[in-house]
Amino acid sequence: MSKYESSAIRNLAFVGHGGTGKTTFAEVILKEVGLISRVPAGVMDYASDEKEKQISIDSAIAHITWKDKEINLIDCPGYQEFFHNAISALNVVETAVIFISAADGLTVNTRRAWSVAKQNHLAKIIVLTKADGENVNFDERIDQIQSQFGKHCIPFIVPDGVSSQFTRVKKVLDANEKGVAEYKNKLVEATVETNDELLNKYLEGEEIAADILEVQLKKAIKQGEIIPIVTVCPVKEIGTKEFLEVVSEFAPSPLEVAPKKTKNIQTKEEMSLEVSEKGPFSGQIFRIFNDPFGRITYFRVYTGSLASASTIYDVNIESSERIGAVSQIIGKDLKAIDRAIPGDIVAIAKVENIQIGHTLANEKANFVYDMPEYPMPMVSLAVAPKARGDEQKITSSLAKLAEEDKTFRIKRDEETNELIVSGMSNLHLEIVLARLKNRFKVECTQKLPKIPYRETIVGKADKRYRHKKQSGGHGQFGEVAIKLEPAERGKGFDFVDQIVGGVVPSQFVASTQKGVQGAMVKGIIAGYPVVDVRVILYDGKTHEVDSSDAAFQMAGSKAFQEGFVEAKPVLLEPVVNIEITVPAKYMGDIMGDLNSRRGRIAGSDSDGNYQIIKALVPLAEIATYSTELKSITGGEGSYYMEFSHYDVVPGNVQEKIVARAKQEQEKKDK
User: Fold this and answer.
1) Cβ atoms of residues 544 and 610 within 8 Å
2) Cα separation of 395 and 43, whole Å?
3) pLDDT at 1
4) Which residues pair with 63 in a beta bridge?
5) pTM for the predicted model, two decimal places
6) Which of 12, 520, 538, 589 lies at a C-alpha separation of 20 to 30 Å from 291?
7) How many CA atoms lie within 13 A of 593 on its CB side?
8) Do the Cβ atoms of 482 and 563 come closer than 8 Å?
């Protein structure tokens, strides 16, 4: 049996923008409970690249015991390149702890974290840091938080003093002096407003007993009706005990929230499982770490219990695996336990195949937990191994890195034969490819992927071509007459047989079509595939001895190539729908930048202080857009894009693309 029950567990995800002090405060908490002796200790940011860049890249987990509570902290990176960690963590906790810098205010990842926490119906605690900074106005920052997230965000623990005089904190409920008393009144009012009976008594002037008020406050916080704002100073290690007391008293346990929804595999209907240690085990994976020595899998237990040295069943891939120890986690260290119970966040080692989001059980089950939704990667590079013989190794190693990060993708482009990696930004890809080198000893070259242009025509042509070759014995003879004209955009290729009287036998009609299609694949003016062309075969000639499949393939290919050049050839480029979310103050700069990229503004919407700009932009113009957007907005902008359609490339741009293609071909020929 476990030494504690699920009611004692508190699961927290530390989320918010980078630089707000999440990791420092997590280690301050570890010091407070006696797990480390100094800060920083490198327990939470333990990877070599995290230490080198001095930022969090992966989420880090720490299990601590505080008085009679068992607390799991998941410290999530604050930069938007690594926001997938926050999405995963917020999927397996009851409480989102949202960090906000009093000096910097609300930033893009603060809002993103709040939005995901709200979607997941989590309790929330706001932690306000850097209130000791010069020229920080505490009341103004509270007003900003309330204007963005609601009046139910109430100061709970406030600084005693300002700037350098901030040496300790005060509990609002315990204080009566001027200033703090005003916050206490607001907290009392907010609490009674969550209960009609208490509200009526309060409005009638009746004093609400402290114990009754506290019970209702706990209920309101756990249901998300009140969001406490707790002020801490991680660098000075101020407010740590007060924060832990708030978590201990007011954050919900796994038994105090609605059971996590599952979906029946066959019927797709939603199901609810009883949160009980006695029922069948189920859990969900939220993090994976791969290295050459094996895999560590991190997951949350929702129902039943899981003993060490038992068998788990991955419902998503219908596979069973024998496991070793089930372990609690402190940074990179694992501490084996006998059994995990509902609410526990634990790890197992050396279990392959299972993936982030998969549902675990201890027997064949007919349900799965919903997968979290992750943002689409926006930046791509074409990579190739530097060393010969590493082709297979680079693919398998990148696949392992992609298992850890749901916003990192790899694919082989069948058209260009390039190995394409995609991520959230250039920094994101830089870090992943550095891990490829450091962990798996594979170095690679990098370049921008080829833009998948297409060739087509906007005019018509009529072309006759005779292929005749005599070289002793049987020769080669095939003559075709074809017409070329544009086909409907997106149609692809339309071949029309208008041969009359059998002047070209049916088998050579098929040969002609094959020759035309072979020329289309290679491209005519710049080496890109040809699309949206109608070819009409209407005449031709044969020779009773020398005509052959090969001769008519050649005739069809040459007739098409020559006719294509005469039919006003153009390049087509991929155009994407893009939605860009930026603070309103940057809207003019963004729209001007889009216009300079041949973008067409399709509309805009507002979301609080943010503007969402919608546009159609050629893919070639935004291949490195994440860098430019970060430069314009100081990292406060984000975007999403998806393929829309192909459109004609302007003549001046086409000339450059064709010239570049000819130069590349000349280099290959040499």
Assistant:
1) no
2) 31
3) 46
4) 72
5) 0.82
6) 12
7) 18
8) yes
pLDDT of residue 2: 63
- Residue 88: phi and psi, rounded to 5, are -65, -45
State both tokens at 17. Answer: 């923008």
Show Cβ contacts of residue 613 under 8 Å, excluding neighbours closer than 6 positions: 579, 580, 581, 582, 587, 590, 591, 594, 601, 604
C-alpha dist (Å) from residue 31 to 40, 331, 344: 10, 13, 22
Cα Rg of the chain, angstroms: 32
Peptide bond into 372 cis (omega under 30): no
**Is 432 in contact with 290 (CB distance < 8 Å)?**
no
Structure confidence at residue 162 (pLDDT): 67
Residue type, 398: L
Q: How many residues does the chain have?
A: 670
- DSSP E strands in 223-337: the ranges are 227-231, 261-264, 270-272, 282-291, 294-303, 306-307, 311-314, 319-322, 326-330, 333-337
Give the span between the Cα atoms of 483 and 69, in whole angstroms. 80
The token duo for 483 is 């017409």
- Residue 346's beta-bridge partner residues? 299
Q: What element of type H or E holds 381?
A: strand 379-385
Residue 474: Cβ within 10 Å count = 12
3-state secondary structure 473-486: CCCEEEEEEEEEEE
> Cα dist. 598→74, 490, 580 in Å?
43, 22, 16
Q: Measured between alpha carbons, how far is 239 from 40 in angstroms, rounded to an integer?
A: 17
What are the helix (H) ranges across 177-237?
Answer: 180-192, 196-203, 210-222
pLDDT at 521 (0 to 100): 92
Nearest to 14 by CA among 109, 105, 81: 109
- DSSP letters, 124-186, are EEEEEE-TTSTT--HHHHHHHHHHHH-TTEEEEEEEESSGGG--EEEEGGG--STTHHHHHHH
Rounded Cα distance between 208 and 608, Å, is 36
Beta bridge partners of 476: 469
Sequence-separated (6 or more) residues with CB below 8 Å from residue 487: 493, 494, 532, 533, 534
Tell me how far CA of residue 398 lies from CA of 54, 426, 615, in angstroms: 24, 16, 33
pLDDT for the residue 340: 97
Can you tell me the distance from the alpha carbon of 576 to that of 591, in angstroms, rounded to the nearest whole number?
A: 16
**What pLDDT shows up at residue 44?**
97
- Which structure tokens are listed for 468? 């005749």
Residue 183 is predicted with a pLDDT of: 87
- In sequence order, the 6+-apart residues with CB closer than 8 A to the CB of 463 are 481, 482, 483, 484, 559, 560, 562, 563, 566
Kindly list the structural domains of the chain, giving each domain's residue range(s) and its CATH number in brackets, ordered by start.
6-188+225-256 (3.40.50.300), 272-369 (2.40.30.10), 379-447 (3.30.70.870), 454-567 (3.30.230.10), 573-652 (3.30.70.240)
How distant is the alpha carbon of residue 254 from its chain centre?
A: 27
pLDDT under 70: residue ranges of the chain: 1-2, 162-163, 177-179, 472-473, 608, 670
Query: What is the spatial distance between Cα 407 and Cα 57, in angstroms, rounded to a whole number?
Result: 13
Would you tell me the crossing angle of helices 426-440 and 391-404 to the nearest 10 degrees? 120
> 265-277 b/e with 16+ CB inside 10 Å = b?
eeeeeeeebebeb
Of 62, 59, 57, residue with least CA distance to 30: 62
